[in-house]
Amino acid sequence: MAKTKEIKSRIRSVSNTKKVTRAMEMVAAAKMRKAIESVLRTRTYANLSWETVMNLAHSRNGALTPHPLLAKRKSIKKIGIILITSNRGLCGGFNTVLINKVRDSIVKHTGADDKEIATDFILIGRKGASIYRNYGYNIVADFPKPDLTPEFREVSPVVQMVIDAFLSHTYDKIMVAFTDFVGASSQVPRIKQLLPIEIGMKEAEHFGIMGEDTRVGIDKKFVEKKEKEHLQYGTFKYEYIFEP
């Protein structure tokens, strides 16, 4: 009799645990959907904004006095990297793959004396601190990272910091390392040069994958259509899509 009660008690316990787990799964799924929608909603604007920057840079190409943010340095002595990671673990190789890619990129690009170029890190996200623990790189700033897509006022201090550092010649290049969302089970680590702005960036260096599926990136035909609608008027072609 006691054994029967014990079995029934265990069944109830397992059933209750199942209900709690199911509720947690539903909450996690809702958060995941919200995060994905947030990412994809901003990607088109981010990519087209980058196209605008490239267009403006192209219009300044060959000028006698190039814009300071377009000026290449004769030698690269120091690099600043904005490393964007997650705040929490338990996400497989999400952060590890990105950090390893950054490390490999630094090792591959050496200076004139075949030594690693001096590199400082600006962290966004708690897990980026492992770049110091594992490799000993210098961290000059650590900014909090919201779990969802931040507003401009939250990233503005980072932007101002890297622009000031580049213009003051503290860094000769500013890079950003981030994970590009492709799908729930697929993320691609990317490293992109922000400053100086160079003309002729490849499609793969956009902020997000440009593909045929508008749910994943932005559709090339869509971009071409919008360019014809908004950038051309007869033989005249406007220089940008958005007000800079």
UniProtKB/TrEMBL annotation:
InterPro entries: ATP_synth_F1_ATPase_gsu, ATP_synth_F1_gsu. Keywords: ATP synthesis, CF(1), Hydrogen ion transport, Ion transport, Membrane, Transport. One of its GO terms (cellular component) is proton-transporting ATP synthase complex. It is found in: Membrane. SUPFAM superfamilies: ATP synthase (F1-ATPase), gamma subunit. Pfam families: ATP-synt. Gene3D superfamilies: 3.40.1380.10, ATP synthase, gamma subunit, helix hairpin domain. The keyword Transmembrane does not apply. It is a peripheral membrane protein. One of its GO terms (molecular function) is proton-transporting ATP synthase activity, rotational mechanism. Its main location: membrane. Belongs to the ATPase gamma chain family. Produces ATP from ADP in the presence of a proton gradient across the membrane. The gamma chain is believed to be important in regulating ATPase activity and the flow of protons through the CF(0) complex. PANTHER family: ATP SYNTHASE GAMMA CHAIN, ATP SYNTHASE SUBUNIT GAMMA, MITOCHONDRIAL. This is ATP synthase F1 subunit gamma. It comes from Candidatus Azambacteria bacterium RBG_16_47_10.
